[in-house]
């Protein structure tokens, strides 16, 4: 049965579940959203409450697959789908709730298509902002023993998601996928993404890195190189590689 998203947070969660490139947008929306948690107690009144300084609350937990979670909800509709009878509940900014419940594993919308598990570690990364950190951009030095060539099996999911990002970033011209290997330091090839663009490219690698953090590839890590005229590899890619992304109109 299809369930309609009740708000922007649920819309962005649904998109993030299928598109890794949309996950940073979901996390940002979550940080600024109100979430709902079920309170324990003996007075089952369906009443929205706000926390005041020094106030303590009792929250119910649930067990899923042998593990206990604090259930949270992205809307009252999702909460009412889970709890059929009237309950006391708390409405609070997500960041404030995460700070209050540090160390706990959370389960967003249990039993709903708009659901997600948050480990305590992931919650910590949302609070300190590291969930938004891009992967480091590496530059392949010109005068090293590094070997470069096309992969036998391209990382299809990664390339598809990066194509979505590059289409949104108007100054990206094209992007290539290759593998690099230094026999002196490497035990296996590394995945390389080379990006050609015009203008400033600071945000390009940052946005692409966010995607790469969330996708498993056969040969990690995913490294990026900017084809900005100074890498020394522009000619190699133009002559020997077919871009996996090429902006049709620019």
Automatic annotation (TrEMBL):
Residue span, SseB protein C-terminal domain: 140-246
Domain of life (superkingdom): Bacteria
SseB protein N-terminal domain segment(s): 9-124
The protein, known as: Enhanced serine sensitivity protein SseB C-terminal domain-containing protein
Species this protein is from: Paenibacillus mangrovi
Lineage, opening ranks: Bacteria, Bacillati, Bacillota, Bacilli, Bacillales
């Amino acid at each position: 049965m299809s369930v309609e998203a009740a708000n922007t947070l649920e819309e962005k969660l649904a998109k993030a579940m299928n598109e890794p490139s949309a996950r940073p947008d979901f996390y940002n929306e979550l940080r600024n959203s109100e979430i709902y948690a079920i309170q324990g107690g003996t007075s089952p009144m369906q009443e929205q409450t706000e926390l005041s300084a020094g106030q303590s609350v009792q929250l119910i937990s649930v067990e899923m697959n042998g593990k206990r979670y604090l259930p949270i909800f992205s809307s009252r509709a999702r909460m009412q789908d889970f709890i059929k009878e009237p309950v006391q509940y708390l409405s609070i900014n997500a960041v404030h709730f995460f700070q209050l419940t540090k160390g706990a594993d959370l389960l967003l919308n249990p039993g709903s298509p708009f659901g997600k598990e948050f480990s305590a570690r992931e919650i910590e990364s949302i609070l300190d902002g590291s969930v938004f950190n891009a992967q480091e951009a590496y530059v392949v030095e010109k005068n090293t023993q590094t070997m470069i060539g096309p992969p036998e099996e391209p990382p299809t999911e990664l390339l598809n998601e990066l194509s979505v990002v590059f289409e949104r970033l108007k100054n990206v011209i094209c992007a290539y996928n290759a593998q690099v290997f230094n026999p002196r330091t490497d035990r296996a090839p590394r995945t390389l993404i080379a990006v050609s663009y015009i203008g400033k490219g600071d945000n390009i690698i940052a946005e692409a890195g966010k995607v790469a953090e969330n996708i498993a590839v056969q040969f990690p890590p995913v490294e990026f190189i900017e084809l900005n005229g100074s890498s020394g590899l522009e000619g190699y890619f133009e002559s020997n590689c077919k871009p996996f992304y090429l902006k049709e109109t620019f």
